[in-house]
## 1
Amino acid sequence: MPVATARSVSLQGALGHLIDVQADVSPGQAGFTMVGRPDVSLREAGDRCRMAIINSDLGWPATKRITILLSPADLTKRGPHFDLAVAVAVLAADESVSPRSLTDTAFIGELTLEGGLRSVPGVLPMVLAAAERGIRHVFVPEPQAREASMVPGVAVFGMRSLQQVVAELRGEVVPAAPPVAPMSGSRLLTWRGEERLEEVDFADLDGMADAKYAALVAAAGGHAVLLSGPKGAGKTSLAERIPTILPDLIPEEALELTAIHSLAGALEPGDDLITTPPYSAPHHDASKTSIVGGGAGQVRPGEISRAHAGVLFLDEFPLFRADIIEALRQPLESGDITVARRDESVTLPARGMLVLACNPCPCGNYAVKVGRSQCTCRSQQLRDYRAKLGGPLADRVDITRHVGPLQPYERGGPPAETSASMRARVAAARRRQHERYGGCAWRLNAHVPGSVLRDRWPLDPAARRPIDSALYAGHLSSRGAVRVHRLALTVADLRSVDLDEEVVPGEDEVDTALRLRMGEPLLVDRILGVAG
């Protein structure tokens, strides 16, 4: 009984499973059967593959019974990217292709009725998963060959049609074929989009020394930030400039982020690894699926995952739906987001910097000083708005800063520090953290578990005393005390000059961390001392 096996990959979020596509072509009542929990789009692969093989002049075994098994059979398989593996397995079982040519090879691509290949999302995470399981050759649609080649140790064949794939497997001359259209045409759009952010710089902002230093600490340690203040004070301008002080991604982060964008279908032909930290600023009317992830059929990454290793900015975050705000609690603690459905649970990476911004009230005109307030909000609106400001999400934010209106004396002062200068200091602080956490599962201070922090990098008793006092007085929660410890480490990393010197936060660093955490003004001499 002729049986042949081709291989492809099934994705559950960013996790890939190597799938054996086994084809049996044997005498019997003519028909096509596919088993192994295929979804609707995959069940239709039989008709697509039959017409693709016939129109490619390769010979479909029309008088025989064809059975396809997708193994392991307990996993749900989704998507038309299995088409190429199904067609090759049928041809190998019918002895049109040698089964030996399928060894250590994976096939990814959707087929058209004419036998052409179409691009599919998620090629990079698929090839990563295949390489981890010993696959050394992979066939993909031609526009995605560059994407697949980002995985080291894998020979990539970019093909245009089923005829070309079969010719390559047979060792014959590869025939010509029409080019494959790319999956996306977003580069044809004419607005500037994120390119506008390439021109901004912290030197553009007058004053705001307190908030700028908070942004510096947040970028150095990967801490979450809450910016509050009246409308027009500069909260959005500050958040947009945080990516300009983040260093380029390390190779592991770049590969993770590029795989996420591949899964979302956001990579263009010719794109290289994404090495610059991403910036995402969804509108407050965005759906939970667009921010957290999900969608019909295969789960797609949301904005929180597409901002992995970068910045996710939620402007006017109290206006976001309550279920979205609650969903952000998990990634702030664990660095990933889990999307659970009836028949599957998908976990996606989401370890980026969260930056929140809000007004003092829904209309933005509330002022503490008597006679200054022009607020038109009703008392119930104020209560609902402030309930979100003090909710569980806010307790998971490391830094709280109030951004006030620009004062007259802040205009026309000495030149402000540039983003390039701040970026150099952030990079130096992160190098110290990478040295400290070498071999660990985390990279930045904001990611270190509290228990490990206390055991391996404890504070001196004198430095610890202010934290304990605030904890016992009820001004800090236990979670908040851990976050102050992390912030103190980051402040010390920024102040340390010698890379080889062991960094131990002192009383000044802890005091600065407490002020950052509790929203109290920073001491000017300490800000100037670090900036110098």
## 2
Amino acid sequence: MQEHVSDRLVGTLVDNRYAVQSKLARGGMSTVYLATDLRLERDVALKVLHPHLAGDDTFLGRLGREAKAAARLSHSHVVGVLDQGNDGQTAYLVMEYIKGHTLRDVIRSKGALPPRLGLALIDPVVEGLAAAHTAGMIHRDIKPENVLIADDGRIKLGDFGLARAVTTSTSTGALIGTVAYLSPELVLGNQADARSDIYSVGIMLYEMLTGQQPFSGEVPIQVAYQHVNGTVGPPSALVPGLAAEVDELVQWCTSNDPENRPVDGTALLQELRHIRTNLTDRELDLQPPAALDHGAQNPTEIITRPSHPTTVMSPLARPERQPQIASALSGDYATTALPSAPAAQHTAAYSPYPDTTPAPLTKRARRKADKEAEKARSRAAATPLRSLREGNPRRRGALWVVILIIAALLATGAGWFFGMGPGSPATIPAVANKTVAQAQLLLSDAGFQSSTRDVFDDDVPSGLVVGTEPGAGTEIRKFQPVALFVSKGPQLFELPKLTGQTLEQAKTELNKAEMALGTITEQFDEGVAAGVVLAQDPASGTPARHGTAVALAVSKGPQPIPVPSVVGMDENDAVDAIEAAGLKAEVAKDEVNDKKVPKGAVASQSPSNGTLTRGGTVTLTISDGPKMVRVPSYVGKQAKEAEQALRQLGFEVKVNNVLGGFFGTVRDQDPVNKDVPEGSVITLTVV
């Protein structure tokens, strides 16, 4: 949605190339404009950095390197970086312009989304993130505002590289990101990796499914504390009936410990698609209750850590972690357009301002509460209120001996269980690229029980093991379950039909199908206009994996044929020559007189040169020979007068002087008083 607000850059030309049309949005680091690239004649998104960043030469150098890295990341679900530069005090990035709206707009208008829609919207985001992680890039600011949805349905993830550039250029006590989606390790000032992006994706998916964020507070620091100390609850607490697999997916992504999250976008994408494939239609189409909150705008905040941190208390902070968190978060923080969430907003995890009114219990929560109450009653019934009598001291001693023996046996059993039995720790062996039988045997030998899950994989052949969850090398108790991921081979998709479309339309279809454009060859075709696809390889309908290159044969239109010159040729010979060239000869009805072209020969043709397409027409005009003209008699006339008159009639004149032609009088003329061809020679004898 464009924001038409007066702005000093609107209507100006940046770097003599980008004509700024209007202001689109403003964030914590930059303002985004709709601009036109005058050189390439296309609309682009022009991201102009705020002055405090544009004046930092060190930052601009890092931004240039990050922009180059992001520009090399070419993926159908990632917004392309096209250019980067400076124009005086204006530092800018040029990005692909996506006309449409953001995921924030979807959440704001629809609230909680059905699982089918939520998982479908998050899938291309994770796919684009997986490509970035594979290329060694981390986003650091995943949020609904950075997920762009084009009017034609394309979904793209934007702002790669900018957060990293800001983080590395600010003081060591600063961190960048939108606090609602910030991972615990970033809050604590630790190193970020791909798993930090995964945490943000999990928070965003929670918000899509429930219509609200898991943590809220009056100021950003309260939300940050909850990321470190709280636990993201299952979305089903707010959306009863939500599939357990979806709960597990969200909580897997939002684990406080990065080691317990998916390792990167690729691992998350495999599990996400496995869940989407295996959920029933009823589970996918579950309609959530009316959302409590349709989401709020979340600009990127910069939270700084000063050299002398102040003590910040939170009812959620663990005492042992307070100094570390206070050092990471205390001090000033930017409040750029930061919305304050309502204090009464219900969340799936803890809040620094808990609601004293108990929420209605779901059926599952009610059953759990009933079981806890039953256990409490059983314990109360088994506890004696008073001793009936003191008893015999010897009997009490024997009782203590029995108790000690039982305790020793229990301790021995526990030692065996946790030392050598099913509770003992063991390391998961590497089973990738092995058959299922081989993998299960290795796991069994190590003391583990395993289950299998089928997944698509582009690199591992069908039937072989892709990996395990937990991963190889992880030490766990033997009684804990191990999942074997078995490859179904690459996921294949039918290639779209491209023949009959223009080359640009074919490119768009390939982009939608997430296929690559292969070699383009051009050839003449008499029946197909130039620029239209004649053939494709592989053919339409062929199953292929994403990224498959499709070669196209494109028409150059009918082949041009040079027009032969047939002027002066006999009519029949001229017609044969034109038809032999693949053209059509047409003879004009009227003949013309021509003193240089004999009768029956071609006097002129149209067109006389250039090219025509096959079957084009060449019009021939045939000569009727020279025109016949009567020669008048000029005998007795002055020679000069006679010569001038004859030349005006189109004759050539030859003069023979007798006795030097002293008198200049025509004595004789040949021919005379006859009809002769135009241009004939007339001889005058002059005395």
## 3
Amino acid sequence: MSMEMTAWHSLRGVYGSQENGPGPLSRATLRRIAGFAAPHRRGITWFLVLSVASAVLAVATPLIAGRVVNAIVDGGSTRTVVVLALLIAGLAVVEAALALGGRWMSSRIGEGLILDLRTAVFDHVQRMPVAFFTRTRTGALVSRLNNDVIGAHRAFSDILSGVVANVVTLLLTLVVMTRISWQVTLLALLLLPVFVIPARRMGRRLARLQREAADHNAAMGTQMTERFSAPGATLVKLFGRPDDESAAFATRARRVRDIGVRSAMVQTVFVTSLTLVSALALALVYGLGGFYALRGDMDAGAVVALALLLTRLYAPLTALAGARMEVMSALVSFERVFEVLDLRPLVAEHEDAVPVPEGPVTVEFDGVGFAYPSADKVSLASLEEVATLDHRGGVPVLHDVSFRVEPGRMVALVGSSGAGKSTIAQLLPRLYDVDAGAVRVGGVDVRDLTAASLRETVGLVTQDGHLFHETVRANLLLARPEAREDEIWDALRRARLDGLVASLPDGLDTVVGERGYRLSGGERQRLTIARLLLARPRVVILDEATAHLDSTSEADVQAALAEALQGRTSVVIAHRLSTIRAADEILVIENGRVAERGTHDRLLTLGGRYEELHRTQFAIDEDGQEEAALA
């Protein structure tokens, strides 16, 4: 290793450390880390063996080089010099092979650990309730799966191997150097503070610069993510100031540039200075060693060996000087990952869960009470960018709600905005669990049903019609991956969308864009209905599926919805009078309670809340026909 590389290596040990250093890790955390490492213990063992072997060879080579010099100075045989040279070459080849093997092993361990952590976090997050996603910043959550997982992986690859190899190299080097000349060894150790102190100071300085750069990069990333989405770009064009947006982005970008230049100069000055210190130390070794050699107290080979060993001494010493900071900083990433894994999913499947009974099913709400969970039960302060989470209990939104929908029949929910209609729709597919009472499908409490059978039985169409940035085919097959081509086209035909999809450039393989923005609102909604039809659920929930559509699109969607509702048990948050009239029963939801129930005609005669809603939210056109919405 050259003196310049030694200087860079010394800086690496403190480069990424926190300014004040992380706090100590608990034994419980260390045990959990050991649990994740357990499947890789065989690879870790071989990794450590290769690291130790490399460290031994790193010390052996200077000693052999010293013997070569002695053979030359003492007039030894050519054969001896050649054999020693070949031995050095052979050790170099072996050392290179060990380095490649160690790198391959560390990559397998590190990437395997990343795989284990990412899949564990991803699977765990998917089990979290919807409330978790309504509170959590997506970028912060993605960062846990990327930055923190990679930081945890460093603890098992770069740091683990570095600490072990450096300790072995340091001990062997000190033993060998002391045996050759304790005076030169002492001199090298006395110069160590000159080598280490600047490294720690510059490392902290660089860490501060890098954190500032990371903050600016994160801000730019947030700005780009928000402004480059279709809704964000539209908002900026309608109400934003593009020049101001550009100026704000450019200011951050220029600061990152300035930090980059400053960091590069700090590193260069530091490395150059330490290279100079190393060169001076090497000169002292040659001077003092040469003095002893001329006095006959040391042979020339020993002087060369000491000089080569010096380069093997400073790198591990300076790296280990910042090892604790580096190790602790990397292992803190585990705690951030464990924070997410320790969040308990509020909705979980019982071990003895049963499937939904076969055949037509009933839907029943029996004395249901519900309050959305408080923040401390479903989220983390670090994922919301707040100092502390709100520990107050959720405000009840449903009170003793009871109704029953017989197989093949329809119940419509109407009421004021915020009355609790959408909450009822979310409880049926068990997006949340009730706090009181029970929700039953086929006579079985949904908490006792398997998640897979409940998903197959209950289908929900919401008003936003969400689609992934994938192909039409992929968005449809989300409902039933094993569906045949003819079944896909049949669902599109019944959703009145087959003609449009056939006219697209790539047909079913056309990418719909982020959230389906390459399609119109009505087309997006009909595609979600086609997805529902492909799933063939026995229970259908419509949550204001036509709320934001124009009259033409709404007519197309209504025709598709008629296909979706035919012969199925249905709970509909009503949007049109025609839907309400077709319902077998209408429930008026007010303040989380069932205020009225009955048929359309009966509720009108009562002169209550339904009649008021009907009178205030419906208009009469010139032909005397009712139109508009009731929601």
## 4
Amino acid sequence: MNRPHIMLVAAASVAVANIAIAAPTAPGNKLEASNPFARESSLPFNYPAWDKIRNEHFAPAYAEGMRQQAAEMEAIANNKAAPTFDNTIVAMEKSGRLLNRVSGAFGTLSGSYTNDTLIALGKEMAPKLSQHGDAIRLNDKLFKRIETLYNKRASLKLDAESTYLLERYYDDFVRAGAKLSAADKAKLKDFNSQLAALQTQFAQNVLKESNASALVVDSRAELAGMSDKAIDAAAVEAKKRGLDGKFVIPVVNTTQQASLAVLTNRTTREKLLAASMARGSRGGEFDNRDVVLKIVKLRAERAQLLGHPNFASYHLEDQTAQTTTAVNSLLAELAKPAVNNARKEAAEIQKMIDAEKGGFQAAAHDWAFYSDKVRAQRYAFDAGQLRPYFELNRVLIDGVFFAATKEYGITFKERKDLPGYNEDVRMFDVFDVDGKQLAIFTFDPYARSNKRGGAWANAWVAQSSLLGTKPVIANNLNIPKPAAGEPTLLTYDEVRTTFHEFGHALHGMFSDVKYPRFSGSRVPRDYVEFPSQVNEMWMAWPEVLANYAKHYETGAPMPKELLDKVQASQQFNEGFRTTEYLAAALLDQAWHQLTPQQIPTDVLAFEAEALKKAGVDFALVPPRYRTTYFSHTFAGGYSAGYYGYLWAEKLDADTVNWFKENGGLTRKNGDHFRKTLLSRGGTLDAMQMYRNFRGKDAVIQPLLERRGLTGN
């Protein structure tokens, strides 16, 4: 089945890596009273006052927020009293409330509703925030207090969560360079500052290039195969861009584009995929090739400074995988059978082309179009037949929320009184089993030209009993918005993504931890996708599907024969999907397992050689992301970590088996999953947490069976 590759973003994070920042505002606030960041939001659960926040509020709030946290950290470091857990670790956990507010809001708008002013400010702030973080993590006095406590932790009589927090702080500071010499710390600060600026530049280039790379055509005939409504929308998009009389298909962040599955004009398909794959590598102001080389070199140099042979080694040490050997082994084990499956699928596609007397060899831009034809022939249905049964509101309310109520007993009530940064954002109060409000959930489903691609979850407010904060969790999707008055009908993959992202939301909403450092999804990157992938199982669970998969016009349930065909085709095209994902994951590792001396000069040549070396250089299946628009690894939090989706899927597939073995969608199962795993955040070793839930380690066989990789 198709596994979405979705970026999780913690909007509350700033350059101070792994330092949770939330506490009452420090005294001496120099912000003007009219600035909405000057005080806590008065809205429920500290929900952001989007109706009051303006571009001009961010810069002064950032400056004051950094000043306040710097002062708080200096006070901790210079405290004349002997270090205690409360006056050092807890005090750090409580620092920087203002910086948390502004960075959370800025991160949300930068991803979901940006503008030129915010883009410029983001570029300006990235190195400043990096320097601010370095000033904290590389503060000798502060680290000595942490180290003193760490060395005598066994005698401090702390509870398990507090002990683990102390250990994580110590590790965080050491990994950030706290033990380096003064000269090396200066080098590290320079590396960090440059990387912050370059990663921001990469992300902004990707966004701008995606808008610039939209396919422009002159006639409706060139868009044959698309629905009349979709072609009309392309005309409207063209008009917005000052191209009256033409038609525009925007390019989304992945290599493959949805329209490739329906466009009958092969030349148009070829142009669309070419535009997608050329992003960031064709010269001009958005070209990311030089940016990539600088990022990779700096990361490698930084890793060596910190005692590791390469960046991947440095990153993985703090993940559940731990070593490059473990990651390389997993990816290599799956590469050959995945490509073998893809080649078999390609042969079926070629047969279909030959049967139609197409007279050409299949190419990458033909795959989606002809694989749908093969599916239709083999299973007597095409993916388009499903969309009338997947209306967005029904999927959300009668599918996603329904499953959560059945599994966990939580309920939802939409509210219209809270402000949104855009009219498309919806807000829901979430109530626990006892009727008390648990969280606020927000849902932003539609694509926009000023919204980055993909889908993600983030915490506007993170849960913490130490601070008395309750969660406000957001989901973002990128579903094309239909014309006014038209229903939003989803593809099967978009339905899956909706369930997936809500899995992240559950992780945040069910968080029941003391310290903000451990709240919700603040877990290792290669573990964070696991709970969200598990939540995907409910989309096709018979009881859930029957509740939401109803025709948007008639209300008729999806016919059983259509559902049976969907279920029968679950492994269809899995060779393609696994191969395109593996190609991207292998590229991520190839770039980040280089030493500084091994950095190439030609990005595309290195990419081609890396794919060939890994055995995934199959032209019909390009990587899900090519290097120059691979935001996960060069701008997001998945650098040397894109393998994590597959790593987490091993746990997911094993967990799905557990649910099935124990009766499926029941409160008993949900309560166990919530108690042992979803509520625990990052309060203990991730794999121990999994064993506490499952009773044993995960096995890989369910994953291999799911992806059709047995017997290859």
